[in-house]
Amino acid sequence: MADGKKLSSLDASFLYLETPEMPMHVGSMAIFRLPDDYKGDFFEDFKAMIVSRLHIAPILKARLEKAPLDIDHPSWVEDDQFDIDRHIFRASLPQPRDRATLERIVGWMHAKLLNRARPLWEFYVFEGMKDNEVGLYSKMHHAAIDGGAGAALTNMIYDISPIPRKVDPPTAGSKPGQEPRGIAANLLDSYQQLFSRPLEASQAAKNLQLPRTGKSDIGSILFDNAMYQIESAVRFAGNIPTVLKSVSDVLGRIADPKSRESLASMVSPPTMLNKTISSERSFAGVSIPLSRAKALAKQAGGKLNDVVLALASGVVRRYLLQYGTLPAKSLTAAVPISLREEGNTEANNQVFGMICSIATNVENPKARLEAIIAQSTKSKEMSHPLRALMPQVSNISMLGAPIMVQILALLYSRSNLSDVLPPAANITVSNVPGPRQTLYAAGAELLHIFPVSIATHGQALNITVQSYRDQLDFGFIVGANIIPHVQVMCDMLPEEFAALEAAYTPPAADIKGAAE
């Protein structure tokens, strides 16, 4: 068997929770403009560029290798039958070949599961669009990537000039697998290193890395799991002071009456958006100016994320009002928070989340944004102690867990429990920071990059935002049985943004008086 890198519990969970109705891949719909004098074949040029850079992102050539009987997490191994033509496809759009048509196709394609026998990613190039535009729909399994790693992958694919940069070819050579005698020697060295320096025991425990075979036969899996359990126990012991402080902080906040009020505001009311979803998706995208959104956040005394939440809140409020189903209690949003340190480009998931009330029960846009700023501050304070705990619990491993979790996920999906259970949150809202400079791919200018994320049972609507240049590109993805045409909701966002700006614009008379 080939040596591999075992998935963390967090990464693997996206595989176990996946069902035909709930694919667990993320993606984007990028829009390019070809130069007026472009004479080449963009599809072939783009494919050749990706081939020349595959070694920069090894995850693109890695496939899953399951453990025998699913007793442990699968591993990433290099696909020795990798074929780029199974991952980058030339696609076509029906007339009128515009963005609206592309969005409908993307929604349909995003509902299709990736083939787990191959590396878990696909690119689709749509040529022949209006105004010399080209569409690129990409999707990659969430087990391999989060928003932070996605931004790193973006830097691999794109260039900062129309002329693609030269990338050094891969270096030859590979790291040979360890023999059992070498593993045993390294194991003894690790223990000697840990216990021979008692003054540095805590730091040594935190950084302890015991050897692994990296193989997928059952004997190696049992050995590697034993090493992991020892490693986890020692690391946990080294982190006991941090864990105790976090637990103490959490208990202290729960005991605080003000914190209990904040917890009460995070309880989500049931809505039409919190039902079991089908295996179909509806997608739409829209953009607003980034500089104006930041100016609005500054005026309100908040952050850009607060403005994004306020816009999502206003859109959902409008939509539910149209159907007469807006609850009296405010809706909530699940907001992912990255744990990724600056410069960390590993292709894995380093994230946790918070629940935030989004003030859908407040009619005035200005008052709604101010309420969201206050609520998001409280939610951050409540979730802050949990940040230190997440690395301790995000990689818990137990033999036999994979098959058990997959069975439970399938039962949850088939039983329609999300129709009757209270929702953990009403919608998901995520903001992924992106590059400010203009990017290019194979000579074509990148105009937009609309995120295409995950809709789940009980949280049918996901609104993810990607910043690029001076714009915020919003991607709306939803279970099509809940909202058949999410474009209707997407079209409300520019109106909400205009209403929010107007709420912070002084009346003309005041401006004239100030000038005099």
UniProtKB/TrEMBL annotation:
<dbReference type="Pfam" id="PF03007">
    <property type="entry name" value="WS_DGAT_cat"/>
</dbReference>
<dbReference type="Pfam" id="PF06974">
    <property type="entry name" value="WS_DGAT_C"/>
</dbReference>
<keyword id="KW-0444">Lipid biosynthesis</keyword>
<comment type="pathway">
    <text>Lipid metabolism.</text>
</comment>
<dbReference type="InterPro" id="IPR045034">
    <property type="entry name" value="O-acyltransferase_WSD1-like"/>
</dbReference>
<dbReference type="InterPro" id="IPR004255">
    <property type="entry name" value="O-acyltransferase_WSD1_N"/>
</dbReference>
<dbReference type="InterPro" id="IPR009721">
    <property type="entry name" value="O-acyltransferase_WSD1_C"/>
</dbReference>
<keyword id="KW-0808">Transferase</keyword>
<feature type="domain" description="O-acyltransferase WSD1 C-terminal">
    <location>
        <begin position="349"/>
        <end position="500"/>
    </location>
</feature>
<keyword id="KW-0319">Glycerol metabolism</keyword>
<keyword id="KW-0443">Lipid metabolism</keyword>
<feature type="domain" description="O-acyltransferase WSD1-like N-terminal">
    <location>
        <begin position="7"/>
        <end position="308"/>
    </location>
</feature>
<dbReference type="InterPro" id="IPR014292">
    <property type="entry name" value="Acyl_transf_WS/DGAT"/>
</dbReference>
<comment type="pathway">
    <text>Glycerolipid metabolism; triacylglycerol biosynthesis.</text>
</comment>
<keyword id="KW-0012">Acyltransferase</keyword>
<protein>
    <recommendedName>
        <fullName>diacylglycerol O-acyltransferase</fullName>
        <ecNumber>2.3.1.20</ecNumber>
    </recommendedName>
</protein>
<comment type="similarity">
    <text>Belongs to the long-chain O-acyltransferase family.</text>
</comment>
